[in-house]
């Protein structure tokens, strides 16, 4: 029984009555034990609640392990062999970074993250991480990005990489394959599944991955398995709003398939994470407050003995007096310092460790380096039901790296001194000759040694190696274009928007008996903006607990329908969370072997510029799907003004190599793009995704012109030829601005006798990418006949200047200027938006029909094809104010 409670002094200024209560409580602790005492407090709190007395309960617990020693189960593995394996991995991880930097100074790499994480990963690899569950995929692991050398080193010991591969760490462009700096499925598609190195992205994606797993299970698209999502997170990484911002989702959704392990090494890049506080306490409060199961792994087993011997309660008191800055110094400065500064504060504590040497004190382990403590935490976490678990594991940054250990500069340490390498080899008993050790030579014992046999056997029991990414060829037949005939046929004069057109195509796809169930519509509280009410009624909103209430609009046809197997992911107002869902759904073809097709619909302004880094990681993950940027266009999105009017999302999208971007004007263009997208991504298995803008302006949708399919997909086609004779001007339009261009074509012909062809440019980005690729080929093959970019093939034989207008910045069309020398004049929407209607917005940004006409005659004057005085007159007729403010700077 715990007796130390009686020895802890009671605050002197308490009243006698309070003192009596404390005494009674102490007696209970002594007589019945701490669990009973805790139970009593909980009962009292419940009693107070019933009486309407608000007694807040604390979110943090004492600075001790959550699992007391007497509740631990014994370690099931061979500790000696596991230690040996871990030492070898530590060596190879360190050697590959150290060796590489000796060879190629400045190439970088990190050793201190893995050194703190090694045991946390090894216990998982030896006992918890399943590579498969029968014929089903296994657990998912989001590794701390900077720990990748350790993950590679393990794969090397397992025989998955040879020496050459290891020696090409961060040398990806050599004759032999290398290893990428961090987890990048794009660069190592057979190995990594989840990109994590941009801080905050891993934990956020992990939460939504676990949620999406439940979604697939609840919709019967995958089998239920005990599969877990493990996310290893840096304590510094929790500074990112992305890391903590969605933890409420995990508890709300009761994600007991999710385990966060936070590597609390107390440091980030520059210095301590919370020098003046304790990060473990802070995170405990945050996660418990959010409804997570929290397991703290603070102290290693050797501290248990000290706790047992301490009958004063002073050990815990002293621990709670110290902040993380102190704890860092205790590790950085060694045993004598610890004795003096930590234990030395109270004579009773000094006495407690009087029989220990300084060396022994320095070796007092933290919980995150103790396999028994970690095993017990993982066991509890994986058995816990009804919610997510976070393990707060206290570790040492740079553990085992001698002079680098727990130093502020640890993170940036790439090379060790010769002395440190020698010490490392000795400490971890690595049989490498000193000279080779200094060069960072990898070492792998032969396959028949006990340690390698053990390592292989453990992985075999757990279903194979990890991490591993594979893509099984799935039988997928994309619908042909005639499947979309309702939309390629035009709207028969009815005025609709491309958004409405899209929603009706989406509903059609949702009904499809083959692929309907694979469609995953995602919205961040914008369903009504896009007219999704009918789809909500049709397939329901996913709600893991169904609909527990009777919706007020239940009597209406389009009521708010939530279902356990609902299909729409209504994410609430979180573009980052929605993007994480998009990522889980867009990579399910590999992760779950289920080719779900996500359509994420959002305000285009709150897309790439808000979640750009997530989109980049999506591409890295080889994600597929459709990003549908709605209410797009700086002048088409009326009324809402500066923060809402998007005139640049296509430019941002163009920065992502695997993102195909389209700005369709008409619903038939949209249908063609969607049809081809599903075919390319899911039937052909191409690793790309789509960004398509859609608008809320209503107009009659024409029928698809004959022969336009290729042009729509490649980026340009002639939409309406000049009415009379050969055109002397070419007009480019995109999105709803194409309608302005068509109007301009008429004005030019009717009023000024200028004949123009009108082209729909569906993708400046695709045209440029094609032109760049052809140009490169031509550059590299100067003696072979030149090839012609698609843009120039399409424009072959056309005459005169090109006036290009879109609802985006001028940079969009300007991307094509290298191939259209002295022909191209661009109009666009550079500058901040305004709240007004379309007519005024388009006049302000100079993308209305009149501005297109004015730009045309102006260019013709410069080219000597139009009279200057007539042009001035035309400006006046068109209402073009030549002295008005430049919208780009307004
Ligand atoms: C979004 C982002 N910002 C900054 C960085 C640069 N960076 C890399 S590691 C690191 C510190 C990481 O500290 P922590 O999360 O505590 O991990 P540890 O290495 O200590 O385990 C920083 C700031 C990054 N990778 N991503
Ligand atoms: Mg850290």
Provide a concise account of the structure shown:
The chain contains 36 helices and 22 strands.
Give me the secondary-structure topology.
Elements: H1 16-32, H2 34-50, H3 79-103, H4 112-127, E1 132-133, E2 136-137, E3 140-142, H5 148-157, H6 163-167, H7 201-218, E4 229-234, H8 241-244, H9 247-252, E5 258-264, H10 279-289, E6 293-297, H11 301-309, H12 314-321, H13 324-333, H14 335-341, H15 347-352, H16 358-362, H17 371-383, E7 389-394, H18 418-427, H19 434-439, H20 450-461, H21 485-488, E8 495-496, H22 498-511, E9 519-523, H23 533-539, E10 541-542, E11 562-563, E12 569-570, H24 575-586, H25 588-591, E13 597-603, H26 608-620, E14 626-630, H27 649-653, E15 659-662, H28 667-683, E16 689-693, E17 699-700, H29 709-714, E18 716-720, E19 729-733, H30 737-752, E20 756-761, H31 764-780, H32 790-795, E21 802-805, H33 811-814, E22 824-827, H34 838-845, H35 849-862, H36 868-878
Parallel strand pairs: 3-4, 4-5, 5-7, 6-7, 9-12, 9-13, 10-11, 13-14, 14-16, 15-16, 19-20, 19-21, 21-22
Antiparallel strand pairs: 1-2, 8-17, 18-20
Helix pairs in contact: 1-2, 3-4, 3-5, 3-20, 4-17, 7-24, 13-14, 22-23, 24-26, 30-35, 35-36
The structure holds thiamine diphosphate (TPP) and magnesium ion.
Thiamine diphosphate binds next to α4.
